[in-house]
Task: inverse folding
């Protein structure tokens, strides 16, 4: 049960990404170029479900297992803005973000594999950088 | 339809496991989080992979195929995405789908910033590096 839940959720999430077109970089780029508004509906739909569903879940006080692990920060600091800006540039260059890239790996595209390896290297370099300079 | 499924996944994970469905946070935690906090992250990644495999069976055209960008651009984009999402503590799922659902100002700021640089890059920078069409 402890691991079945995240496994099942990962599967549903990947299906949602695939059925909505988020796993197709050309669709994401068309959206960012204002040529295809479809993904706006996808993101709006997803956020609407969490907007309605999260308060219902949080009102229960605790999840079915364990405790809620929620982000506590509310400040808008430099790493947030700079990090989001860099992420957006990478996203706009090829049309892949982390979820769709990982979902797309099984498709066997060597370029998607290359993207995921570079993404892992980027994450690792941030890890190493912040380990050395504790804020 | 897909969007509702994405949102429902996030609500389910919060309800069942108490966690935020943020892909970059879940993956990044494999490095940063305590060892005993790793199993559920790997289970989620396995689930994503199974979902990808299901998509491959249902309709392979839903998955990314050959990307038109030259490989140095793909590497650069991957590095920027990987470093950026860890610095910002979230990506499209964590800040976008979940953060907005939590009415977090921090997430709204992140979404506005990455949408803006994403749009500017796709419209102004990408054509210079990749050439016309996508």
Result:
């Amino acid at each position: 049960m402890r691991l079945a839940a995240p496994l099942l959720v990962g599967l549903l999430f990947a299906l949602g990404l695939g059925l909505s077109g988020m796993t197709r970089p050309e669709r994401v780029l068309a959206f960012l170029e204002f040529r295809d508004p479809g993904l706006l509906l996808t993101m709006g739909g997803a956020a609407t479900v969490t907007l309605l569903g999260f308060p219902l879940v949080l009102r229960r006080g605790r999840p079915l297992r364990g405790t809620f692990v929620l982000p506590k920060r509310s400040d808008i600091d430099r790493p947030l803005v700079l990090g989001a800006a860099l992420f957006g540039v990478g996203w706009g260059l090829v049309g892949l973000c982390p979820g769709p890239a990982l979902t797309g790996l099984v498709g066997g595209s060597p370029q998607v594999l290359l993207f995921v390896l570079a993404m892992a290297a980027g994450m690792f370099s941030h890890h190493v950088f912040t380990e050395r300079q504790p804020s | 339809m897909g969007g509702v499924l994405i949102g429902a996944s996030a609500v389910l994970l919060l309800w069942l496991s108490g966690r935020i469905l943020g892909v970059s946070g879940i993956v990044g935690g494999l490095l940063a989080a305590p060892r005993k906090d790793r199993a559920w992250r790997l289970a989620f990644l396995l689930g994503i992979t199974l979902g990808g495999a299901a998509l491959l069976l249902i309709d392979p055209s839903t998955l990314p195929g050959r990307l038109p960008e030259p490989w140095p651009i793909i590497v650069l984009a991957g590095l920027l995405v990987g470093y950026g999402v860890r610095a910002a503590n979230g990506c499209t799922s964590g800040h976008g789908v979940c953060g907005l659902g939590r009415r977090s100002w921090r997430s709204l700021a992140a979404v506005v910033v990455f949408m803006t640089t994403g749009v500017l890059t796709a419209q102004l920078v990408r054509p210079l590096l990749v050439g016309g069409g996508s």
